[in-house]
Amino acid sequence: MTALDRFHPLLRQWFGQFVGTPTDIQTKAWPEISGGYHVLVTAPTGSGKTLTAFLWAVNNLITNPEREARRILYISPLKALNNDIQRNLTTPLQQLREFFTAAGEIFPDIHVAVRSGDTDPSERRRIVRHPPEIFITTPESLNIMLSSKSGRRVLEGISTV
Predict the structure, then answer these.
(1) How far apart are CA 108 and CA 58, in angstroms?
(2) Are 151 and 145 in contact (CB under 8 A)?
(3) Residue 128: alpha-carbon gap to chain centroid
(4) Is the N end or the C end of the chain the one with fewer CB atoms within 10 Å?
């Protein structure tokens, strides 16, 4: 069994075409993550941590689009890292959408949003009205959100942190 065997067939094909071969950290982490175990991934820059952390959760959104309790929370210690993570997710999600569409398969709407101290108030309101499937924030912003009813509502349905 390879590290990608548990993923949706089109996701496996996309990975092979656009990413290549799984990195060592991906090969080690995905069986644990897909097995439902709690995993902490630590590895050097450029080792594929972003896809390691997100790909199984994205797979769950693809294979179970009707389940609302499949949302993802990513807590980053730095505001600048939040934006990097968002950029590192936007391209693969767009590629996956196009890949699935070309194959005649449905790809669910997967929205990514970032909230930090610099987030515009109108964007904060949009996040509250329509919580994203992938929510990226800092510990400070998470603390503020936990102290308000509307902030806690944004966190409902999170299954992966």
Answers:
(1) 10
(2) yes
(3) 18
(4) N
